[in-house]
Each structure stands twice: as C-alpha cells, then as structure tokens.
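Sharing in case it's useful to others searching the archive later.

Someone asked me privately for the predicted structure of Oligosaccharide MFS transporter, so I'm posting the question and my answer publicly. Question first, with the sequence:
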Amino acid sequence: MSTAEPVVDQRPVRHGALHSLKKPVFWNIGGLFFFYFAIWQLVMTFLSLWLEEEAGMTSGNIGLVFSVIALVAFALQPPYGYIQDRLGFRKHLFAFVVVCGALMGPFFAFVFLPIVETNQVLGAVVAGAFLALVLNAGVSVVETFNERSSRANGFEYGHVRLFGSLAGATASLVGGFIWASNPDNIWWAATFSAVVLGALLLVMRTPKPGDAGYTALAADGGADATKDAVDRSAFRTLLKDRSFVGFMVLMFGTAALYDVFDQQFPIYFAEHATAVADPQVLFSRVVFVQILLEAAVMIAMPFLINRIGAKWGLVAFAGVLVIRVLGSAFIVNTEMLVLWRLLAAIEMPLMLVSVMKYITRMFDVKISASAYMIGFSMSKAAGVFIFSWLFGLSYDAIGFSASYIVMGVVVVTVTVIAMVLMRDDRGRPDPGKDDVEAAEVTR
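And my answer, the predicted structure tokens:
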C-alpha cells in the first residue's frame, strides 16, 4: 500500500483587480499618485497665465522658464535614477520631492516675486530650476518608486496610476474656482497637496529584506533580493542592449512628439472649431472628458498589454499618435478635432503601462529607475527640446497642417527603426509577482 503524500498544487493563485482593492497599500499608493499629480496639474494648468498676469513676465521669459525646467530635469535624470536604484524601497528621494512641493506656496509668495521684480531672466532661471525638482525631474522619482511598490505588492501599476488621471481632472476643475477667488492661492493649494502627499508617504509600509515583495528589487525571483547595491556593469550592459537603444529611439520620436503635438494644438483647435462661439471653453471641456476617459481606459490597459506584450503596446501607442496627427492635418471640422483630442485617452495609458512593463521585463530591474529615467525621461526630454523648436519654426513657415504631415512621417520612421531593434517581451513575466502571490497563498 502506498504511503506517498498526496500531491498539493503549490502554484501561486492569480488575483484579479478586485483583490487589489482590498489592500490598504493599494489606496495608499493611489493616494500618492493622486496628490502628486494634483500638484502637477495645478502648476501646469495655471503657470503660464500666472506668470503673465500676476508676475508681469514677457512671453520670452515665460518660455525661458519652461526651457530651464526641461534642461534641469534632463541633467537630473541620471543621478536621480542612480540614487533611487541605490535606495530601493527607501523613501529619501521621494521625500525630497515632497518637501520641494510643500515649499511651492512660500517660494512663489516670498522668493520668486522679489527676484522677478528685480530681474525677469534671473527669476525665470530660478523658477525653472525649482519647478524641475518637483515636476519634470520629480515625476520620474514618483513613477519609479510607485511602480516598484506596486510590483512588490502584487498588483498592476496601471490600476493605481489611474489615480493620477483622476487627480488631473479634479485639479483642473477645482483649480478654476481657486483661480477665480485668488490666483496666488494656486501655489498654496499645491503646498496643501504636498503636505497630504507627505503624510501618505510617511505612513506607507514598504517591503523589508526577507519580505516576499522585496524580490521586486531583484532581476528575478531567484536572485538575491537583499543586495540592492547597483553594479556599474549593469549600466554598461543596459546601454549596450539593442532593445534599450531601440526603446530610447522610440521614446525620442514618439513620447516627445506626443507632448510637442499637444503644445500648440489648442491654437490649431481654436482656428478651426468655428462652429462654436468660444473654442477655448469647448477645448477645456474636451480635455476634462479626455482625462476622465483616460482613467477608465487605464483600468483595462494592463490586461491588454499582458496579452499583446509591452513592445506591441508601444507600437500601438505610436499608431494612435500617427492617426491623431495625420487626422488633424486632413480633417479639421469641429467634431473630428474633438475626436482627435479624445484619442489621447487611449494614448497615455498605452504608453505609461507599456513603458513600465517593457522596462521591468526586458532589463535588470535592480536598475529599473535608471532605465526609466535614461530610456524614457531623458530621451523624451531631448526630443521635446529639439522638436519643440523645429516644429515651432515649421508652424510659422509652412503651417500647422503641413507640419503635422511631417510629424507623422517622423513618428512612423522612428517606430519602424525601434521595431527592428527592440526584442519582444511576450512570454516574460512581471518580476516579483509570483513571489508575492505565492506568499499570500501560504498566509
């Protein structure tokens, strides 16, 4: 008679999105996204208008503010990535971003205005450098920390990232009322959001060495997850990886042009949306709807990317961008212009979820923050810096429609090059997920 023990299926149980909703840490990370992107939306929506109307800055010096933001953020990406990878789940760099955000109100009330009254150029440089710490450089810290924390807790990054979209819609709506009461209160609202953000960061529990989720720092489930020191050879390997080179090319020519296309699209929209009395009011409402749709699409996007692969998710993002750009060039009635803008609700989730999944599946996740900041943020910043100027000149020389055709050709070209260089990620698991799920089964 056999005395063998019965076989027990020890494969980890897959949990769905509803299971994530039961975890307090899900709402904690969602809150981090919400209150950070509330700061982002408040600043980016009202900054130019405030600088012109309240600070009395010229258009050229306002442009200088944005140039300094981009340049400082570009310079900070490599050290920020290296530091965050060294820190792992420690919160020090995130906390620095929060402190800078909390100083938003005092900075604009007591520091910036006296400087700009003396010298607008100096004020533009100081403001740009300060805002870069919170926004264009700080966002990479927030995104990579929250992505790693999401992976460590066994749920999809895209599901918590939708809180950022909800924050964008909420801050746009609430910010309008704040602006109407007192434009200076925009900065104090940003400070309030940063204080709440800091409280949420303080109470958040992060994995410690030995916890199942700590394997999110390792290259795979079998690696030594307690070693979070970053090997310089990993950086050399990353930079020589053809998939990483292709990824950088794609971000340079698609993620950057996504921003460049949207920079002056409101002007183009107003020129052609002649069927309404106030095109700018219509456009603001379209953007509000687009952000809400973006949040809804973000819920389903991880399931789609898990099925088709992150590489093809990025190709799909580029494809939607081409449709928007060329569609805007050839079909310019009001209804279709609204449609082209609403398509952005698909683009952003495709890009964000695919970027994170491609980085963590294809490259050493011990340096995932560096891979994100160099491969995505720096490549995108370089593209924005170059293409903003070139297409700005192009709009004046040949008009928006012809420029959009050129832009579409650029997107198609870089996408084809990237498709050849980038390897397929299908079949590669999200690192650390099985360890977290297996640990939950044994509890």
